[in-house]
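Supplementary Data S3. Sequence and structure tokens for construct A.
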Amino acid sequence: MPSHPLIGVLAFQGDVREHHEVLQSLNVTSIDVRSREDLQQVHALIIPGGESTVLSKFFAATEMDQAIIERSHCEAFPMYGTCAGAILLSEEIVEEDIVQPLKLIDIAVERNSYGRQAESFERRISVALDGSMREINAVFIRAPRIVRVGKGVTVLATCDGDAVLCRQGSVLVSTFHPELLAGDRSIHRMFVEMCK
């Protein structure tokens, strides 16, 4: 992995601009990823929040899902999924047969578990960063709930007893939206360090 990685942001739906802005503030170069060709150019990938059903259909139509899976199986390809991105990267989606997960992190999730858009909330959580705990604000918008964590998965943050930030190897997921936290770049900084 290069010391200055090029990070792709899946640019089909969701907080694409916000992720680019955070990466830019960290002096990291990023590009939109909309095709298999784009995917081959980048050293890492962020799958932003949005509507997981729509994103899953986009994956199937473009075969991006297979390209991501193949790349992940061939190399330590860093990926970060926020909200819908966490759903898509998960091993299992509870009581769901529409969205097909990529099965790249051993967690089970329940979609929209915290309620609708109107039930979105912000909460102060403790996150394990660089061997110590740090408090950040976390924004949850129609968030999934992680209902099972596999043995190889490290839980880096919880909220009311639920895992909300997890890592397994080169895959990082959060059920909240750190790209919406004004001034706090700690989660993205952690991901950038994973890319080096």
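Construct B, processed identically:
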Amino acid sequence: MTKVFFDTEFTGLHQNTTLISIGLISDCGKTFYAELTDYDITQIDEWLQNNVINNLLFNEYPNDALSDKGHSIEIKANTNSVKEHLETWLSQFEQVEIWSDCLSYDWVLFNQIFGHAFSIPKNVYYIPFDICTIFKIKGIDPDINREEFANMQEDSQKHNALWDAKVIKRCYELLF
């Protein structure tokens, strides 16, 4: 089973939040990164603008930008297009086990890309796993700075979904 580590950026910690970006990295290093063009801009506050929107990788790119290098896909597009490319990316793996960090919002937004939980690709295991629970089980404060734990703080790109997915992957590797 392929482990895929992922993270999202979204418009706030509330029920009607919308997805801004998503990043995934497989245990073999294949990546997927998407910035969505149809998030609810009315939900963007000053903090989100300064810490998330201003740090998106494709701010200067037109909508519907795509870079497909086989093992790595980067896209800026609407949710429907992101869904199609994400399905293609996930299809390269026979079975997928999803890992994230404090994943309550991330998992809901992942499912929402596909319409709902019953529509996620069949090769994706329907139960996600959370590294913050593993930190707790291993006796490590689950509020620990992930970048410091992973020794990845030098090249920090905080609030970038792909960077955060890479940090989650490294934490997982250190925990196991």
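The radius of gyration is 15 Å. The domain at 2-175 is CATH 3.30.420.10 (Nucleotidyltransferase; domain 5).
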